[in-house]
Amino acid sequence: MRFRPDDIGTEAHFFIHLKGMVRMGTIVFVGAGSMAEAIIAGIVDGGVMHPRDVFVMNKSDDDRLSYLQQKYGVSIVCPERKALRDAELIVLGTKPKDIHQAMADIAGFLNENAAVLSVIAGVSIATIECGLGSRPIARSMPNTSATIGKSATGVSMNHAVDEQMKRRILTLLSGIGIVKEVQEDELHAVTALSGSGPAYIYYMVEALEEAAITEGLSKEIARELIIQTFEGASAMLRQTGEEPSVLRTNVTSPNGTTEAGIKALEKNSFKKIIAECIQSAETRSRELGSTSSSATMKE
Ligand SMILES: NC(=O)C1=CN([C@@H]2O[C@H](COP(=O)(O)OP(=O)(O)OC[C@H]3O[C@@H](n4cnc5c(N)ncnc54)[C@H](OP(=O)(O)O)[C@@H]3O)[C@@H](O)[C@H]2O)C=CC1
Ligand SMILES: O=C(O)[C@@H]1CCC=N1
């Protein structure tokens, strides 16, 4: 369900949550790129927010703002920045390298009660407090499946976030998928696992598809079989609640095809490769954080 600007109804002002309705004011996305679009699509298409309560701004890419306005019915922050002054929640969605400039650009416009929700990899709550002052701040790590309401998001909040704002932020993030509250330091691991995760899965699909084509299948048939295999395996994990190792054993006939396939994975140190993948991404998330906090200290 997607609300449109002419779709006036009081219920559209509210987040609908299982535990009741949570009132939410306007939201401004500072940095309206791919991740912002994924979240906007999730909350607008999911009926979580009315698009008239959602504003977007960029540094210079006005064409992108027009595209988002056309596609989702959201509004563009005007040069006087009125939307920033009125906003109840600011979503920071720039690249880590641009966050200091973005915070310097908006700091003077925010009302003192505005809360902040960051989706930026690596950048700490302390860095945001440094740039935007002491205020309620949530640091999250969603993923691009937010576009279809299937994000796996981790979030951590500072002490200034009260119960009401916490519910609002959790409700907003629930609108784009599942949410897990974690310690701030654990967000580096969340980033490595589920923030970057969709890319690993797509990479694996590319590899499976190439291998299937080499074995004589058409790309179309291979693609359909792979997608259904991922969907089926993931639904089995969720619905049966079984350990993955048990489900794997159920597929593996003694001396059969699966055993041959798994042996090839083991011979090529599959688990070591995956461990290195997650570890490298985790380390990079920490690097992005320390780069941005040392930039703060230089300023
Ligand atoms: N992509 C992903 O899968 C995920 C990304 N993230 C995080 O989301 C963040 C955004 O990533 P992504 O959406 O891919 O990046 P994009 O490059 O698509 O978008 C970044 C946006 O920030 C804008 N911007 C830059 N400087 C400023 C500024 N000073 N004021 C306002 N806007 C500004 C850019 O506008 P302009 O072009 O005008 O400069 C651009 O539209 C990153 O920090 C990333 O770590 C988190 C989870 C998953
Ligand atoms: O690659 C990145 O840095 C971002 C963070 C998680 C997914 N994309």
TrEMBL record:
Cited Gene3D superfamilies: NAD(P)-binding Rossmann-like Domain, ProC C-terminal domain-like
First-listed, main subcellular location of the protein, grouped into a coarse class: cytoplasm
A GO term for molecular function: pyrroline-5-carboxylate reductase activity
Domain Pyrroline-5-carboxylate reductase catalytic N-terminal: 26-122
A Pfam family recorded for this sequence: P5CR_dimer
GO CC, one annotated term: cytoplasm
Pathway: Amino-acid biosynthesis; L-proline biosynthesis; L-proline from L-glutamate 5-semialdehyde: step 1/1
InterPro entries assigned to the protein according to its UniProt record, in alphabetical order: 6-PGluconate_DH-like_C_sf, NAD(P)-bd_dom_sf, P5C_Rdtase_cat_N, P5CR-like_CS, P5CR_dimer, Pyrroline-COOH_reductase
Record-given protein name: Pyrroline-5-carboxylate reductase
